[in-house]
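Still learning folds. Look over my entry:

…
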Amino acid sequence: MTGLYPLARCYLQGLDIPLLFAFVERWQPETNSFHMPWGEMTITLHDVQMILGANVEGRVVAPRYDDAIERTNCVYLLSEALNLEFEEIDESWKHGGPTWRMLQGQLLMPDTPMRRRVQIYLVFLLGSILFPDKTCDRVKPWYMHVLEDSVLDQVGTYSWGSACLANLYRELGICSRAQSRGLAGCTTLLQCWIYEYFPRFQPPDESERYREFQPRCKRWNAPPKAGTLEHIRGLLDNMTADDVSLLYLCIYIF
């Protein structure tokens, strides 16, 4: 009913950190695109839908404008969902916010009501796949109001793919600056996008479990190649437009 079922299978065996940061270095926040020797490229909504299977149509997923209210609502929701004291959840923000382990622990409790289990799992699914932070271990509050009891049945009406892409654009812009020390956002989307369009960087083996019309990220659930940042930079510097694969687009256009 939520339309988020494909996300449960959107994970990779490992992140190719040198590859990701080689592309981050070519990201321009002014145009939201990668500047390559032959021109510019970017991740599109079409890519999000094909790679993650996420809905790109529907209502806008946007944070509320008051951070204090957003945080208070998140704390209240999690304190009820996790059966913890309000102060205990609030205290966790001093260390970056509640952890996924706190959610998982309550999700496995046999006395947790089913509706609450669904709520907890959606928080985990959205936060760990579409909107992870740099720690990959903390719950962030900005999308939490969409999962409140009063609107939980409307989760499937939102354009989660669009929100994921907008968030990744923002995080790439932040990470591309000299002062940044890490990349947040949907790194699964970024890494699989690179694999789809740049065959030279693809893993040696594709996943044997991938089937046609499944999210394309399942195709790349295999260990990445081993390479250094300097080596990947050199490959990108010497690439031409002929090294970019367009087969991925043609499959779905025709």
Observations:
- Residues 250-254 have pLDDT under 50 and may be disordered.
- DSSP finds ten helices and three strands in the chain.
- The longest helix spans residues 114-130.
- The chain has two domains: 5-58+185-253, 67-157.
